[in-house]
Every structure is written in structure tokens, then in C-alpha cells.
Input
Amino acid sequence: MTFPVVGMVGGGQLARMTHEAGIPLGIRFRILSDTPQDSAAQVVHDVTVGDYRDLDTLRAFAAGCDVLTFDHEHVPTEHLRALEADGIVVRPGPDALVHAQDKGVMRARLDAIGVPCPRHRIVADPADVTRFADEGDGYPVVLKTVRGGYDGKGVWIARSEADAAEPFRAGVPVLAEEKVDFVRELAANVVRSPHGQAVAYPVVESIQVDGVCDTVIAPAPGLSDELSAQAQQLALTVARELGVVGHLAVELFEVRRPDGGSVVLVNELAMRPHNSGHWTMDGAATSQFANHLRAVLDLPLGDPRPRARWTVMANVLGGDFPDMYPAYLHCMARDPGLKIHMYGKDVKPGRKVGHVNTYGDDLADVRERAAHAAGYLRGTIDE
Amino acid sequence: MTFPVVGMVGGGQLARMTHEAGIPLGIRFRILSDTPQDSAAQVVHDVTVGDYRDLDTLRAFAAGCDVLTFDHEHVPTEHLRALEADGIVVRPGPDALVHAQDKGVMRARLDAIGVPCPRHRIVADPADVTRFADEGDGYPVVLKTVRGGYDGKGVWIARSEADAAEPFRAGVPVLAEEKVDFVRELAANVVRSPHGQAVAYPVVESIQVDGVCDTVIAPAPGLSDELSAQAQQLALTVARELGVVGHLAVELFEVRRPDGGSVVLVNELAMRPHNSGHWTMDGAATSQFANHLRAVLDLPLGDPRPRARWTVMANVLGGDFPDMYPAYLHCMARDPGLKIHMYGKDVKPGRKVGHVNTYGDDLADVRERAAHAAGYLRGTIDE
Output
């Protein structure tokens, strides 16, 4: 059979879960992993250990693959261009991926295509941050390094010009953004294939704790049909205009207008399976991982519709106890419908080591079950 | 983390799908595969290639595993006893598994615990088959070698004493059974853990073509609540009385009584994930593969309840075209809700190379979608 070979750069949990989704598809799946112990390297058959920052390593890895895709956005853009010049099929390609790698490029492009964003501009130094603040409602101001941030890293809240010095120490360009007074955070997840087919998942609510995703509720409770459709349309527009292939997560702020209505502003983009889409593994007809693979292979996409009235995802963070197995057993016994997804990672305080999904008709119950399991596994609930 | 290592003997599609189910559980999964090309060997990280008939190979494989389980029933019983004597945890253990390995032992045990079976006895030669026939309604008689059969292999329908010679040529004991005039075939799938927890899946209808499972409908249409409960109870009794650990498939004949009611008789037992349970991958809250792993690890079992009104599984057999990829693409385009499960096997005519699942509220529609996809992939439908 001529089933293709997909190579994924990165060996984290996204690669692990993509492999899980690839098994029934009958494809061959390879990863380029930083270490032999990485989350995906434990479960994938074809593992190359190497440094994704090294072009020769990337070239050797890509040589046996029909398509190259990514579990993170850190591969240097110039390497991706070099691989494309070699004839490697890179999906998403560098012209799209650069928007998820560089927040300055992303903001400029979203402005150009008329997608609403928080007020922003590249700033030169702390005095320039104060000018940016004065152009709007003053401090606080959000400062972000244009490259390299995730899960709250590379992001600062400056409450004064003195606060604004830190981000400039790394010597990379800094983007200033207004601190949006949002009602809540949403995410619009879509998947797009090379010939332009696209699917949109239900818009979800994403609840962050200390800058890290804690809970995702699908669909976002109380979201109007109008705003839901607007957010999905926005994500589909971004995917099309930026030429995204594969899964695109558009993280959004829901903001109350003076007239009482709501609008959405784009916070971040991710061009890969995303934490805000983990609920799809148990809550949608086709998971984000399966649809990402189908998209990068230019296969017809799968049904993105939900399978339950409500699905809730809660991240499992490491706590003080290195051995999570007894708690895991307890959670299974308490809730036979709990869907646990462990990443095979050593437990360290605050590290994402897994997630749980729950689903059902009663949102309060579904949320309680997910929160209980995540808390019990972390060790913050001891009932 | 002290997440355990499960070793599965066999590298077929059942091991492949068990690995898929093991990834979210966070366990380590190893296989002992006949060849490096086997279905599971393509996707599992830890693959040992070796002969399961060799005790030293089994010992070396089992040494690194917390529990040993199986994707087939062909490991010699005496090897399993030797491994247990070494202190290896073998699940299901040889005292249970022998009932799935030896049809003579199975029939004797089911008789002893009062589980209804077709009329049967071990027969010595063709003349003895005629005596067996004459004890009942005469020929035809079903003859089975007590060991080694599956998917119609090792099974003969003898219509006369002359027909009855063939099964004796292998020199292994032969079991004679009445040819049951059944209404249809059912399967009752249950999973049992070492400390005695058990779950029962909905009873399904299994449609065979040429001795090979073609379609499974979950739940079995029109099955009375009474007969359904009776079949589930029967399977739970067999699991308990035989000391089964893991998944047990009880293949049943539904037989019409003279008064118009129905009863079930046990056809075969399988102590591993089974083709009649593949629908659970997309149709139940917890798949048979996940529950098999939970059982052999003595973890609490997952919810076996269905997620859809109807789920239909159709096996994908190889046809005349070695490259199934274009048909696969077509099927995805035709039906975005189709769940395809490919096994990574080379296509050979009649070989099981995958299965599809469909689900929904309208049984006729759900059946048509599954049958179409399986037929199109095989090449017997060309719309």
C-alpha cells in the first residue's frame, strides 16, 4: 500500500497524541525528538533523536517523509525555507508558520486583513513603552518578545516604565499590547487542507490559571450563535489568508462593548494541535490530531461536530508527589466515564503531565468531574 | 512515575489497537512480534521480534514486563505455566486461557458450569462421527480440531461419513458438534479484572460471510431485554467461573425455541480483544482495548456503555487492488463521519486489513455507510 509517511518535528505530548490518531489512519509516523525519553519517543516506532535547530539533522529526517509537520513552532523559519527549496513538503509552510513564530509579523498581517486585535505596536525601549501607554489608557501594558514565548513565558505585564525594562534584556524585538479588559478567553479551532477544505470546531471557553491553560469548556457556555459564528469565521479567514495547512488555534479575548454586546479580539495563533482542542479527543467526531494529519496529507477532513452536549478538558499539572499512579487508580475508580490522557512525563511541580476529559448533559457535573480528577492527580484535592 | 509495563505476545492488529488505547493510559507497552513488519510492530516503540513458541524467547520478553497478555491464543499452555512458575504475571492465566485454546476443554467446562452449548463430544474417527450424528438429527455435523482454529480455519461441515475423514488427518483430537439451526449469531463481550470487577458491553449481532466476521451491529437489533441480560449474565458467569482476566468474547448462536422464544448457545470463546468488539473504539465510552489493559493491570474498569444509538462495524478485506489509498481517500470524502481503522497490512484477497465504524440514530443509514465503505475499500463497490 502506498500509505504515506508523516514526519513530525518534536517529541512532546502533541506528537504523542498525533501518533495515537495516526495509528487508525494506517499512515507511517516518524518523529524528530530532542531526547529518547520525550513523551512521544516512548510510544512512536520510528524515532530520530536530534536537534531541530540543525538544518542537516532536519534534512536527514525529512528525506524519508512525504510531508513534514510540527509539534511546536520553534524550527527556524530559514531552515523551513531551505527544506522547501529542497523539495520537501512542509505543512504548515514557512510563509504561514512565521505568523505563529513571530508575534510582530502576526499582528501586522492580522491588521492588514482586518482581523480585530488588541491595540499594539513594536516598542524600542522603556520610554517608548510609556509613549505607547500614553497613546491609550496608560499603564499597565502587556509586553511580549516577538519570538519564543509560550504558556506565559516571554510575556510581561508592565505597570510602570521601571517594570518595562526586563523584556528588552534579551535583545529581541518587543511588542507592546494594550492590557485587554476581557470578559473571558475563547478559542476558535479550525483545520484547513492544501486544496482549501476547512472545518471549524465549536468555539470553546479557555480558563487560564497563572498564564497556563487550566480548563476548556466545549462549547463556550452562553456564547451567542452570532458571536460563535463570527469567531469561527474569523479563524477560517485567518487560516485562508495566511495559507495555513493543518490545525489552527486562534486564541481570543471576548470583550464587552459599551452597548452590552460582545466582540472578539485575537490574542495568539498556534499552527498545530493545541491545548484548547484536547477536548476533541473524546468530545468530537474527529479529533484535532486526526484532522491535523488528514489536512497535512491533503485527505478529506473529518466531521468536527461534538459528540456530547458538553465536554470539559482539565489539564493535569505536576504536584508535590512524583508518583501519580495511586491517584490515577483512585480517579478511575471514582469515575468510570473519566477519560485520562497521560503524557508519560516525569512529574515536576507545575508541569503539564496529562489532561482529563469528561462529557455529559449537565455542565456543572461535567466540570466538577474534570476539576476533581485534575486536582486529585495533582494532589491539591485529597477527599 | 511508576506506570507499569505491559507486554503483549503477538504483533497483529489487536496488539496495534491495544497500543493505541495504551497511549492515553500512560503505560509502557511492549510486543513480541513474529516479524518487524507485523501490524503492531510498525507503530509500537518497544518491539521484540521472536517466536512465541520458544520458551526462552518468552522468558526474555517477559522479564521486563509487569504483566504479560496476548493478541492471540496460540502460546503453548505449558509455556504459560512455566512463566507463571517463574513469577511472571500472566493475564489471562493458563488455567483460564486453556479454555480458549482447546475447544474440548472449553466444552467440558461449560457443561460442568451449566452454560448451554450445542450438543457435542470428542470423536475418534469417521465412524464415530456417524454415531454422533445418529445420536441426534443425523448429518450434517460440525467438526473442529480442538486447537489452532480461527476465522473458519480448523472447522469443517461434514455432510456424510466420507466428508468426515479430513479433520482427522492432522492427528489432533476432533470435536463434533451439532450443526445449530440458528436465527443469527450474537456476541457478548465482557471484561473482568483480577479482583473480580467486571463490565458487560451491549450484546451485538455478528454477521459472518464465508466463516469470517463481516459486520457487527451494536446493539443487536430487536434483541429482547430479557435475552440481552441473559447473554450478558452468561458471559459474566463464564468469565468468573473460568477465572478470565481481561476481555472475553462469547460468540453465541441465537436459536428459536418451539414456543417462539429464543435462547442462546455458546459457539466460541476468545480471551483477548475480539473482532466483535471493534465497534467499541468509536461506539462505547471505553473501548475493549482500553478495558483489556485496565483489567490486566487490575485498574478500575471504564464505562462500557454505548455513545450512540447504533454503531456498525464492517471489516475491510483485501480485494484485487493492492493499493487501497485512492479508495480510502474517496471514502473519507463521501462520509466525513466514517471512522476508518487501517492495520498497515499488505493487501491480499480476503485478508482483514482494517475495519470501519459508523454510528448514528438511523440503523439503515448507519449500516449502508459501513457496508459501502468496506465494499468500496475492497473494490466490490465502484459507484
Summary: Chain B touches chain A through 50 residues (CB under 8 Å). The first strand of chain B starts at residue 5 and ends at 9. Chain B has three domains: 5-90, 119-178, 184-378.
